């Protein structure tokens, strides 16, 4: 497995792959868990070459404390990738990936302003900009994203369509813990007490009731609610559990009931 931490090393490696070989990319911010592992496995199955990027992208963090506290587990990440048969890890640094210091950016003017976008100004400009860069550098046939970040998945699909980018975006189901909490790198930051309490989030979110009522139920359980909203066939929500912001979404029936 190659670990490539400069763009020139990455491009040299990428250019040596013959066009007959299909390439998959799993973009991540590291601190890998079984959710990422499921994306890697799908990528491994569907492509000749499986690549992953590990980059904590500062431009998508509206909250500097959140960025400073983002977990960094490079050694464990490297081992997980090796065990899963990843061919190459792309591990760039900010100055190389942003030679323009973010003067140029990708912006979406509707969906990016809703839900998480309403609470994290500029977040999706940062996400779309870095995903555009990573796709341009990795030139994958397929790129893999989790449904846990439903709004992100819709926006990335929209960008690829809008800019005629030659890549298929593959959405992968949310992997959950035994108590149904969606796995997330930020879960590592929950205290033991808050981790137990967090199980109430998916449980209450699956209540068959209007979104406003579900928001009130979450508040009654002690969560600070950013939003609970139905969007593109999903019930989406973001809450704060102690210091940690958590997101989740579930499919809706047409009548607004959960499957
Ligand atoms: N539980 C999960 N199931 C499926 N995919 C996931 C899961 N968690 C994250 N992913 C996907 O992995 C990719 C990389 O996500 P990222 O590195 O931000 O991890 P994360 O766990 O979502 O971290 P965060 O705490 O920042 O939300 C994204 O496409 C994301 O949707
Ligand atoms: C897609 C992504 C890697 C871009 O930084 C990030 O938003 C994530 O990990 O979901
Ligand atoms: N997985 C979403 C990345 C973020 O919260 O910034």
UniProtKB/TrEMBL annotation:
Q: Where does ATP bind?
A: 29-36, 146-149, 175, 183-186
Which top class of enzyme applies to this chain?
Answer: ligase
Q: Which UniProt keywords apply?
A: ATP-binding, Cytoplasm, Ligase, Nucleotide-binding, Pantothenate biosynthesis
The UniProt record lists the EC number as 6.3.2.1
Summarize where (R)-pantoate binds, as residue positions: 60, 152
A further note on this protein reads: The reaction proceeds by a bi uni uni bi ping pong mechanism.
Name by which UniProt lists this protein = Pantothenate synthetase
Q: Which organism is it from?
A: Desulfosarcina widdelii
- Lineage summary: Bacteria, Pseudomonadati, Thermodesulfobacteriota, Desulfobacteria, Desulfobacterales
């Amino acid at each position: 497995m190659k670990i490539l931490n400069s763009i020139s090393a990455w491009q040299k490696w990428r250019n040596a792959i013959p066009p007959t070989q299909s390439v998959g990319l799993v973009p991540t911010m590291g601190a890998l868990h079984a959710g990422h592992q499921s994306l890697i496995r799908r990528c491994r199955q569907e492509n000749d070459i499986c690549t992953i990027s590990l980059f904590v992208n500062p431009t998508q963090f509206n909250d500097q404390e959140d960025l400073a506290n983002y977990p960094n587990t490079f050694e464990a990440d490297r081992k997980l990738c090796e065990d899963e048969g990843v061919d190459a890890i792309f591990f760039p640094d900010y100055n190389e990936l942003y030679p323009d210091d973010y003067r140029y950016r990708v912006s979406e003017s509707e969906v990016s302003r809703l839900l998480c976008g309403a609470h994290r100004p500029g977040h999706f400009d940062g996400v779309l900009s870095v995903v555009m860069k990573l796709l341009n550098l990795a030139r994958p046939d397929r790129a893999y994203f989790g449904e846990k970040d439903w709004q992100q998945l819709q926006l990335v699909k929209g960008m690829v369509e809008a800019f005629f980018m030659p890549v298929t975006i593959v959405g992968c189901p949310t992997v959950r813990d035994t108590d149904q909490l969606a796995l997330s790198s930020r879960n590592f930051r929950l205290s033991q007490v808050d981790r137990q309490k967090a199980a109430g989030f998916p449980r209450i979110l699956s209540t068959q009731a209007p979104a406003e009522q579900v928001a009130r139920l979450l508040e009654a359980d002690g969560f600070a609610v950013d939003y609970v909203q139905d969007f593109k066939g999903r019930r989406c929500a973001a809450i704060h559990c102690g210091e940690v912001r958590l997101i989740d979404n579930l499919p809706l029936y047409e009548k607004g009931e959960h499957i």
